[in-house]
Structures are given as C-alpha cells and as structure tokens.
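Lecture 7, part B: from sequences to assemblies.

Below are the input chains for today's worked example.
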Amino acid sequence: MHPLVKWFHQFGSPPTFYRWAGIVQPWMFAVAVVTGAIALYLGLVVAPADYLQGESVRILYIHVPSAWMSLFIYLFLAVNAFVALVWRIRISEVLAMSAAPIGAMFTAVTLATGALWGRPTWGTYWVWDARLTSELVLLFLYFGVIALHHAIEDRRRAARAACLLALIGVVNLPIIHYSVRWWNTLHQAESVRLLGESSIHLSMLWPLLLMALATKFWFLGSLAARSRMALMEADADKAWVREALHPQALPGATR
Amino acid sequence: MNALPFVIGAYVIFLLGLLLDVLLPWMRHRRVRAGWQARARRENARNPAGGVK
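Predicted structure of the full complex, as structure tokens:
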C-alpha cells in the first residue's frame, strides 16, 4: 500500500483521529484567538474610517471573513460528502456533518452583520438582491443538511442522505460568488481578489486578511471538537471509547 | 446616521456566534461523557468483575 494511503487509513481510524484531534484542538483555538485579537485591534483602532462609509466600514472586518467562511465550509462539507459517498470513508462523513453547524453559524453571522452594515450604508437592513438571497439560500441548505442528518434514526444512512443533499447544494456556491457580476445588484463587487490587484488600501486589507486567518483556525478547532464528540457518541459501546474515557470515567474501578 | 450602535451590534453578534459555537458542543460533550460515566459505574456496581473497564 502507498505510504500516503496507509497514513490516510491510519489517521482516518476513529481512535487515532480522536487522539490527534484532541491534541490539535487547543492549538487551533489559541492561534485563532491571538490572530483574531490582533485583527480586532487593527480593524477597530488602527484602520481609518472610510471616506464614504464612515465608521460602519469596521463591520466589514468581520462580515467579509464570515462570508468567506460560509462558502469555504460548504465547499469543505461537499468535498467530504463526496469522499464519504464514493469511498465510504466514515471519518469524512463525520467531518462533513460536524462542519455543517459551524458553516450555518458563519452564514447566520454574515447575514446579520450584513444587515447591520446595510442599514447605515444603504438605508435598509435587507433587499431581495441576488447576493443576499443566494446567501440566505445557503443558510437554508445548511439547515436542511443538519435537519436531514437528525431526521433519520440510522446514523450512517442519515449521514449519507445529508451528504447527498450537501452535494446537490454545491450549485449555489458559484451563484453566490458570481451573483454580483451576473446580475445588477445593490451589493458591491468584490474588493479583494486572489488573482489580480485588490481595490482596498493596505491599512484595511490587513485586518481583513488576519480575521480571515483567525476564522480558518477557529473552524479547525471547532471542527476537531465537534468531530471528536460525534465519534465518541457514535462509538459509545466500542472498546476504544472506554479506553479513551477510562481515566476520568471510572476513578475507583478495577481494571 | 450614527453608525456606532450598528458596529457594536455586529461585533457582539460575531463574538456571540463564536462563543456559542464552542460552548454548545462543549456542554453536550460533558453531558454525553457524564452519561457514559454513570452507565459505566452502574454496570461496574452490578458486576464488579466483568463490568465496563
């Protein structure tokens, strides 16, 4: 067996994943908190107010990274759903289902912070604009995946059905991304580009990028915590869970 | 229009979202773990030789 495939299978085994996720989780949260604190300082204190938007521009330092995360997590969910459906790898199922509530949280934050930015800037909390509506559809997709996962009693069947729904929902991702180009929307086009020049000043770009980095690490920490719990719940009767929980579980028990 | 209340509201929602994202699974983890511990203790009390190890 190829060493990479062998490593993947070893890492994908629940006991190994549980152990590694437990080690990685606090470090991910620590990096997220430090990076996020620096981004907050830069965004709230150092960066200037916008000449048009005024102080409300500071909302964008959390709104934009949350929006990026809502798309990134759905893509992560869909890739894991694909792997879980095609190769029946259980850890991918667990990762996909654990990512869904985190994605839903970031999508809800995106919509809420966007509404709070829209009121002082556009004069309204909400418009049925293509970008806003497709982002709302993304939130409903996340809710659908979570609800379907909890609606079926057999956990493996539930996860597979939810994975299928997640894959169908991928069609919404390019619609969200290109909505500002395909339709005439109130929502402005992107200011930060991966390829090409960004139309945003460096003093505003740095807090945005740092917060994007912080939210990525937060996602990894939260994903590790949630997937550990999902594995522990699913394998409650298995020997590896008993071994993992034994030190605290049975302080006075004889081994 | 004074944007400050909107800025504060947005940051509160963002931080609350992150906090709940960690707190809710952590509380559930504790509940599941406590349930497992209670069950293990019960089984060990019933059968000290062959209970949950």
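Note for the exam: The helical segments of chain B are 4-46. Keep this in mind when comparing with the next example.
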